Amino acid sequence: xxxxxxxxxxxxxxxxxxxxxxxxxxxxxxxxxxxxxxxxxxxxxxxxxxxxxxxxxxxxxxxxxxxxxxxxxxxxxxxxxxxxxxxxxxxxxxxxxxxxxxxxxxxxxxxxxxxxxxxxxxxxxxxxxxxxxxxxxxxxxxxxxxxxxxxxxxxxxxxxxxxxxxxxxxxxxxxxxxxxxxxxxxxxxxxxxxxxxxxxxxxxxxxxxxxxxxxxxxxxxxxxxxxxxxxxxxxxxxxxxxxxxxxxxxxxxxxxxxxxxxxxxxxxxxxxxxxxxxxxxxxxxxxxxxxxxxxxxxxxxxxxxxxxxxxxxxxxxxxxxxxxxxxxxxxxxxxxxxxxxxxxxxxxxxxxxxxxxxxxxxxxxxxxxxxxxxxxxxxxxxxxxxxxxxxxxxxxxxxxxxxxxxxxxxxxxxxxxxxxxxxxxxxxxxxxxxxxxxxxxxxxxxxxxxxxxxxxxxxxxxxxxxxxxxxxxxxxxxxxxxxxxxxxxxxxxxxxxxxxxxxxxxxxxxxxxxxxxxxxxxxxxxxxxxxxxxxxxxxxxxxxxxxxxxxxxxxxxxxxxxxxxxxxxxxxxxxxxxxxxxxxxxxxxxxxxxxxxxxxxxxxxxxxxxxxxxxxxxxxxxxxxxxxxxxxxxxxxxxxxxxxxxxxxxxxxxxxxxxxxxxxxxxxxxxxxxxxxxxxxxxxxxxxxxxxxxxxxxxxxxxxxxxxxxxxxxxxxxxxxxxxxxxxxxxxxxxxxxxxxxxxxxxxxxx
Length: 751
What we know:
The chain is of the alpha/beta class and about 750 residues long. The protein has 4 domains: about 1-90, Rossmann fold (3-Layer(aba) Sandwich), CATH 3.40.50.300; about 95-255 and about 290-295, Rossmann fold (3-Layer(aba) Sandwich), CATH 3.40.50; about 305-425 and about 585-645, no CATH class; about 435-580 and about 650-690, NAD(P)-binding Rossmann-like Domain (Rossmann fold, 3-Layer(aba) Sandwich). Helix content is about 40%, strand content about 20%. Strands 9-8-10-11-12-13 form a 6-stranded mixed β-sheet, with no helix packed on it. Strands 21-20-19-22-23-24 form a 6-stranded parallel β-sheet, covered by helices on one side. α25 (about 660-675) packs antiparallel against α27 (about 725-740). It starts with a strand and ends in an 11-residue tail after the last helix.
């Protein structure tokens, strides 16, 4: 029978002895505590080397291997030198290998778990190899070595800084002066580190180190990487509401043993001194034993919260007035100057949103980061001007721990549509264009069904109607054209470059051979024949189409940001349904989100794409450039459904459309069609007040359900066949939707 004795500087009250089998050998294992008395530890190791096959030394300050340097602890080396007859170890080699294996294992098993986490090492020098492994997944590393050892009120924030510090610490902390420096100002040091613990996502250290700086106020929801966690230690972490404890030391026996004990047992089996055993020897044994870290959930409810950031910006001077205390009567020449100054302002955090929980159990939280430039200001400058501000926003997001960043509104169309930003940023970037494209068609399809002015060709199963995409050569426009070509009998792709349009047509026909596709760079004369129009340009306020020439009852889906059709143009045609597509309803009630001009819990599809990718743990460059991939449109659509995203109620420039409002558009359209000919009405349409759209009611509103004119529509409405519905029926359905508070569901499959 092999005998292994571990002498530890810990309390002798926790001493134990047991017998077990390990690697084909019978073992007698003993723990002997020295009660923080180095003299007692020295004596125990001297006496027991005569009867033991190997000796472990635990709870001491170990030698540190940092970069190419080895920092030797003289007191630990003195204790090791007393053992001359048998192998002796502190477990440093095995600990280093287990730590690296633990990081790799968790990163793989929990789906990119450490990506851009804020990781605090209470001792970076003792955990250098783990820090190197962690640096593959995050640059947000902090090391408390300098603060604990010298009192310097700052963290080391890179491996390079840690290596430089390790080089200087040999002479700085040598002798009695170093010991005094390290032992002084303990309370101050612990308080400073405790503040960093509260801001970190992951804390690495021994149980004693963590307990010295951690409590229920700053450890709640954190991930801890430590070793040798027994029931008593786990109970402490439970009281602190720790989210996850990663115990790098495996529990191979009923009794929890230190890594130094386990390494001593391996040396006893190999019957070789420590210097003759390589990393490969240890790794071979670890693989043979299939050793994995223990993942402990103290609260019993593990939460894997992913983090995102999303860039927003003011769309006009009116948005700037809303964000700052600027009088509404401010002269335009003053606002022009303010608009220019805002464009040069550094990015700032607009709000933090959390409590985004998927039906799968995945959670997400994130920050909206605002850059100050309006589309007008961005267009007046080179793309590099905007790139610099987006990269600054990416650095802010990275420092806060975001794992992916989305570009919103005009920031996703500037220059090369996100390619340069994605290349220069350390965070993965997405523009959200894939989800915006599918969102456009969801809303448009739902609107046409509810209006009931078109039929389905029973033979081809396509919509017996004509459609047009303006800005078809753009990223969202090209995908919209592909979708419409699959669903409509005819689609006109319109833009400024005929060559690009012809290339797009060839590509569409390759995927949909039976599609009827027409290219046009002069599409005004075709407007009167269209039943659906999708506008997806980056015209930034320029006139895109003459709405007076559009067919009554036409559905115009404006997916451009800023909008292609201003409110004043929309008001000219109460017999045309102009919708702002792309709004998605979140699966849970989000907390902390400030207004972005949409109803509560409703967001733009580009933001929804960023959130869906975060929930899925897909921290990758997803949609960038001007050529949105059809496969990614389908993929993000499926992922959105998986994570509970719903199509929000259809909105126009003035708010949410109710069934009553849509029925009114249909009524006016049918009347106008009686005199409609070649894009002109033979008889002027009677002046009608603009169709009112309902505003979201306040929480205190007590309007009876039968009179309510707001709320999203029920899923069964979205699924109804395309046939005329009476105004009375529409009112009835709208009232029922208000009473049940059921949002519009996404279709089961893409149109």
